[in-house]
Amino acid sequence: MVEPVGPPGGGGAAGEGLGRSRGGFSTKLHLSADGSCRPLSLVVTPGQRADCTQFEPVMEKIRVPRTGPGRPRRRPDSVSADKAYSSRTIRAYLRRRGIRHVIPEKKDHKNARLRRGSRGGRPPGFDRERHKKRNTVERAINKLKGFRAVAGRYDKRDYVFLGTVTVASLVI
After folding, report:
1. Rounded CA gap, 17 and 43, in Å?
2. Are 7 and 140 within 8 A, CB to CB?
3. Cα(168)–Cα(91) distance, rounded to whole angstroms?
């Protein structure tokens, strides 16, 4: 049996964007937000998709228009994320792009680094005050969920749901 292929970016069965997670069928909304809780970029995936796998696609979609002439900004000044994004790959990606970051280190990563001794390297820098601003993303998601169509996820297709979330973002 061959499963029909949905539109680009589709996740679940035939581009429905629904996936199984602990709570049943669900959809994950991965986004970046500025300091005023306004969404900068959005990616919709099935519920079982890990957060860390969508970090680079979210970062690549950031476009901030300039007030004057010129190309839009594609690189934020800094990134603050939770432990789900604590990996060497993500830290290397941010270093390569020259983006400052505040991501707490997972306990098992810290223990593995300490076990290696001097070969384990230095601990990543962590600024507790800058990390407190991480809740802007959570507040942006809560603002989006204030729209009934986003909170209820009434759209069947993932690209239609992405359009609904994009319209809600524009209203915000």
Report:
1. 11
2. no
3. 31
C-alpha dihedral over 47, 79, 65, 9, to 10 degrees?
A: -20
pLDDT single digits (tens) 74-122:
888 888 888 888 888 998 999 999 998 888 888 887 888 788 887 777 7
pTM, full prediction: 0.75
pLDDT tens digit sequence for 134-154: 888 889 989 999 999 888 888
- Domains of the chain are 13-171 (3.30.420)
- Which burial class, exposed, middle or buried, applies to 98 when counting CB atoms under 10 A from its CB (0-12, 13-18, 19+)? exposed
| Count of CB atoms situated within 10 Å of the CB of 119 | 7
CB 83 within 8 A of CB 104: yes
| CA distances for 144 relative to 90, 156, 166, angstroms | 26, 18, 9
- The helix or strand, by DSSP H or E, that contains position 24, with its residue range, turns out to be strand 24-33
- Residue 32, SS3? strand
- 77 and 100 in contact (C-beta within 8 Å)? yes
User: In angstroms, rounded to a whole number, what is the distance separating the alpha carbons of residues 56 and 108?
Assistant: 23
